[in-house]
Amino acid sequence: MLHDALTKHPVISATGLYTPEHSISNQELVESFNTFVELHNSRNADAIASGEVEALHPSSVEFIEKASGIKARHVMDKKPVLDPEIMGPRWRERTNDELSLMAEIGVNAARDALDRAGRLPGDVDAVLCAASNMERPYPAMAVEIQQALKIDGFGFDMNVACSSATFGIQTAADYIRAGNARSVLVVSPEITSGHLNWRDRDSHFIFGDVATAVLVEDAAMAPSAHWDILGTKLKTVFSNNIRNNFGFLNRASPEGEGKADKLFVQEGRKVFKEVVPMVADMIIEEADRLQIDPQSLRRLWLHQANAGMNRLIAQRVLGHEADADESPTVLDTYGNTSSAGSIIAFHLHSKDLSPGDTGLICSFGAGYSAGTVFVRKAA
């Protein structure tokens, strides 16, 4: 699928968003979690008294909001998550002839992006499904999304945890620059409720479900209202401080030994201390390479993981504490949606910028991984 090699300027033509209808407030979540804690401590009272089992401690709305800035999160399946006897999503297993759950919400976000760009599926050359956890190893989710959209081209999955979307954007931009595609959909269906340990006090409040899509295209075919991609930068540094050990080689039964590390686990304080300076330095160095004054950035669309991390990163980049206009948040209502977070922020908080305004889409997470996409509004 080769095109004119002289056409090498990638842009973001449009973004799309799918938000699940169900939302869980902190109050609802805390009531469910604390009921579970009471049941656990009551059922294990003798073992706790003898020191064989540790007593669990309740959570609170105040603790959650202070620790994260999160007030609510959307989920695909609310009722079983809030059931103290289940505390996890329970989806009907679909047949191989049905559209899978991840593909379904990915298609919804992709169609939103295509509609906003005035683009038909036949105009798209490739689909990249970039997300933190895939529903299955193969066939690739991207190929299923491609099939559902009736796109004649190619697709593949990629996983760089919370940085997947920005890594996908650079990959798509590289295809454009190389002339191997003119229009690429980067789709991030993040059903993070499936890999969250809802029974862990330190993390039960973190994640939410969503799907986003980014249409990356050659400027020659893009709509007049688009965002020029000025430059992208990716970085990875191995760390065990954010980890999920679930996989077909080492999966455990729901109640099996070692279950906890088959779900999301992290050393939050270490992550905070190590990732903030790494990401801030990366942004400043890349801005310098692109001859952009970081303090002139009109807006930062940062990964929505933790309000404190975003505040410190923005302050290091801009040289002052950022206000809600300079660094908007969706964390409070969406929770941490892994790679989709910075894209949601961009999708919901970019229309008011003026032509010529420059901004930054940035994500960071397990790996460690981090991705930056510097953009400028064209019209």
The backbone outline, from C-alpha atoms, is globular
**Do you know the CATH architecture of the domain at 227-377?**
3-Layer(aba) Sandwich
Structural class given helices, strands, pairing? alpha+beta
- Compressed to H and E, one letter per element, the order equals EEHHHEHHEHEHEEEEEHEHHHEE
How far is the N terminus from the C terminus? 29 Å
Question: What's the count of strands?
Answer: 13
CATH topological fold name of the domain at 227-377: Peroxisomal Thiolase, Chain A, domain 1
Q: What is the CATH C-level name of the domain at 227-377?
A: Alpha Beta
Low-confidence stretches: 1-5
Number of helices: 11
- Strand order within the widest beta sheet: 5-4-6-7-1-8-13-12-11
Describe the structure.
- The chain is globular.
- It has eleven helices and 13 strands.
- By secondary structure, the protein is an alpha+beta fold.
- It has a domain at 227-377: Peroxisomal Thiolase, Chain A, domain 1, CATH 3.40.47.10.
- Helices cover 33% and strands 21% of the residues.
How is the topology of this model organized?
Elements lengths: L9 E9 L3 E4 H18 L1 H6 L10 H8 L3 E4 L2 H5 L18 H17 L8 E5 L10 H9 L4 E5 L5 H15 L4 E9 L17 E10 L8 E10 L5 E2 L21 E2 L1 H22 L9 E4 L4 H12 L12 H4 L6 H8 L9 E8 L3 E9 L2
Parallel strand pairs: 4-5, 4-6, 11-12
Antiparallel strand pairs: 1-7, 1-8, 2-3, 6-7, 8-13, 9-10, 12-13
Helix pairs in contact: 5-6, 8-9
Relevant terms:
11 helices; alpha+beta; globular; disordered N terminus; Peroxisomal Thiolase, Chain A, domain 1; 379 residues; 9-stranded mixed beta sheet
